[in-house]
Amino acid sequence: MSTDYSNQPIAYPEQLSRDFLRLGRLGFWMQVILLIVPLTLLLYVLVLRTPDPARTSSIDLANYLSIGSLVLLAFTTFWFYRYIGLANKIADPAQRPSRDDVTNKIWIGISAGCIGIVFSMILLFSAVGSMLFTLLTLPPGVVIAPASTGSSAEFVTAADAVTLLSVIIVLAAELIVLGLSIWLLFQATRNSKGVANPAT
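Now predict its structure.
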């Protein structure tokens, strides 16, 4: 079922170049905008907000996954910027890459987006599950409020909401990355079929 595109030229380089240029710019700027929001929220939590000793005394897996999600989002943002340069190469006959190179680069973007989605989903389940567990431990009708004594881990704070919002934003960005990358792969694959079967 698979077709080897390594030695095949790009059938419609002008069209594919326009797709890469348009979607590369769209994906890059959308991710830049969406990346600014969680980074700003993270800066607010880490720098501007008074740290909670009970919450900062340990580092759990969620912290590493959060950092990993932001790193992956930064990578996919850079990767979509590379799509813009790839569009220029596709349009230039002297620098035009092979179809195999093009599809490999698209698959790298898809793989990074899928890993980011997995990280974000794990974080969402973890954050929502933790908040739900905290709320279920409270008596019915109790209003959550800061306490002067006791463990702060028993309360849902603004930092929890900031974390949850950041994860949702990163997940939205990675879904956009995955959608745009799959569309580019579809265009490149359809383009390749035009070479393999010129009669169609």
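The radius of gyration is 22 Å.
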